[in-house]
Design a protein that fits this description.
Distance between the termini: 114 Å
Helix content: over 70%
Number of strands: 0
Mean pLDDT: 87
Shape: globular
Order of helices and strands: HHHHHHHHHHHHHHHHHHHHHHHHHHHHH
Structural class: mainly alpha
Length: 508
């Protein structure tokens, strides 16, 4: 009978891997008929099969009907909820297990599964408690478990605690090093990540890719330096490294290097990857070679993912080809592709570029029906659009709905307020921007200087002038023009005041 159970369990696992739904359900029905579906070993395999079918409801139904559960049962369910995008339910299930007096104590596999969920939902408190318990139960020698602790701290952006957890790992493996390097890169601390990287005896492709990606995110040309080093070390430039290199060429305007990487993409067989194709279109578009980008797009299968279409849309916008961008947008709509936040952002940018309120209102309606009005990227550009066409009140109302206003929303709103003559509101928004710790660029400062001119406020103007000097914007044409305008306005006000004093002398 024991052998039969093993064969049945193997059959269930096989059904899960092959996605053989009907066969799996048929086996389950036979087990229920024979009265052995509650056997803990078979039930655990039934849960695994339903999780492979991506049916959390059916998996939980088997779980609820079990008369006996072991640690494998709980671990399978917790892992299932986490891997299927419901880490909160995974944590809830773990907490209910702790309250179950009949359940076994958690083991290293369950701890790893829960720590992954903690990292995804930001439950630092529970993660710390599990880390503490691992120490008390002398489990720190398990490198896989300690890597889960490390990953939890990294995902929670607690690099100090991640460093301490890393120091507790007796024999860190490549996963340990790569997790820590990735954490530092994601926080923009790439130079520190390089120092960790230099301590690895034999970095693998993941190690190199973490650093290259970190430099790309910072807009640093060192991304290409490490890409070349990776190649010289004999490691294959994979489907992640090559698109990262192409992105580095994009913001550096390095067309020759980009073409060389294009050859590598073709030789490596990655031209069918939507990730690589998007990167190639972005590179050619940013390097003023829109015709090459267009050729790539036209040669591609039109059933590519929306990311490829978005790259072409972005390419048209970067090169001020607004009519072509509008045509592509219409083609996307007619093809039945689902618009994401990047597509809608591109559509709104077209409206801003052509200053079309009618088109803008149509796109706004589509944004609302698509559920992206409160998306901070789309919402910020929506604010910018309304401010740009003079609808300052609507722009201000929309900005109030955003969970977090970014620099785009503030910039558009301040510019719109100045254009419409709402100088006090513009200055109040600027104060709010500074209070939130956002970095005002020269264009925002130029708009605020115009507001100071409109308010004839010398005090405010001097404060903004000081900020210009501090940030090094004083010599920038946009800021310099704003400063000159403000000085002229103040001079006119002073002369008018002097003329007023000569006509109506002050009492001494």
């Amino acid at each position: 009978m024991a052998m039969d159970l093993k064969l049945i369990a193997a059959g269930l696992r096989h059904c899960g891997k092959l996605q053989a739904f009907k066969r799996g359900e048929s086996i389950q029905a036979q087990l229920i008929k024979q009265g052995i579906s509650n056997n803990v070993f078979l039930a655990n395999n039934l849960i695994s099969m339903h999780l492979d079918f991506r049916s959390l409801v059916d998996a939980h139904k088997v779980f609820d009907e079990m008369t006996e559960r072991n640690i494998v049962t709980w671990t399978t369910m917790v892992s299932g909820y986490t891997s299927h995008g419901e880490p909160n339910k995974a944590i809830e299930l773990y907490r209910s297990m702790l309250l179950d007096s009949e359940s076994e104590p958690p083991n290293e596999f369950l701890f790893s599964a829960v720590l992954k969920a903690c990292g995804l939902v930001g439950d630092l408190q529970l993660g710390r408690l599990i880390h503490e318990r691992i120490g008390k139960e002398n489990m720190k020698g398990d490198v896989v478990l300690m890597n889960a602790v490390l990953d939890m701290y990294v995902k929670n952006r607690r690099l100090g605690e991640a460093d301490k957890a890393f120091a507790e790992i007796l024999q860190p493996n490549l996963t340990s090093w790569n997790t820590l390097i990735s954490g530092y890169c994601k926080e923009g601390l790439v130079d520190e990540a390089v120092r960790f990287f230099s301590r690895i005896r034999q970095p693998n492709a993941v190690s190199w890719n973490c650093l290259i990606s970190g430099f790309v995110d910072k807009g640093s040309p060192r991304a290409l330096e490490f890409l070349v080093m990776m190649h010289r070390e004999g490691l294959k430039l994979d489907g992640f490294a090559l698109p990262c290199g192409l992105k580095a060429c994009s913001f550096g305007g390095l067309l020759t290097m980009g073409k060389q990487l294009h050859c590598c993409v073709l030789k490596s067989g990655f031209e069918s990857s939507s990730f690589a194709l998007s990167a190639l279109i972005d590179m050619y578009s940013n390097c003023c070679s829109l015709s090459d980008a267009g050729d790539l797009f036209r040669q591609a299968n039109l059933h590519w993912s929306v990311a490829v279409w978005n790259s072409m849309l972005s390419g048209f916008l970067i090169n001020d080809e607004n009519e072509a961008a509008l045509g592509l947008l219409l083609q996307m709509y007619q093809s039945g592709l689902s618009f994401d936040s990047y597509t809608l952002s591109g559509a709104l940018k077209i409206c801003i570029n052509v200053i079309s309120l009618r088109l803008g209102l149509q796109v706004h309606g589509f944004v609302v029906t698509s559920g992206y009005e409160r998306d901070y990227i789309v919402g910020s550009i929506l604010v910018d659009l309304h401010a740009n066409v003079g609808n300052v009140q609507d722009a201000h109302r929309l900005s109030g709905k955003l969970p977090n206003k970014d620099i785009i929303a503030f910039s558009g709103l301040i510019r719109g307020c100045v254009k419409a003559g709402f100088y006090s509101l513009a200055f109040d928004l600027f104060r709010e921007l500074i209070k939130q710790g956002l970095d005002a660029d020269q264009f925002i400062i130029s708009s605020v200087l115009k507001a100071c001119s409109g308010l004839a406020s010398l005090g405010c103007g001097k404060q903004i002038h000081g900020l210009c000097v501090k940030k090094g914007y004083e010599s920038e044409p946009v800021s310099a023009t704003g400063l000159i305008d403000m000085d002229h306005c103040w001079l006119r006000t002073k002369r008018a005041s002097q003329r007023s004093d000569s006509v109506f002398p002050r009492d001494d």
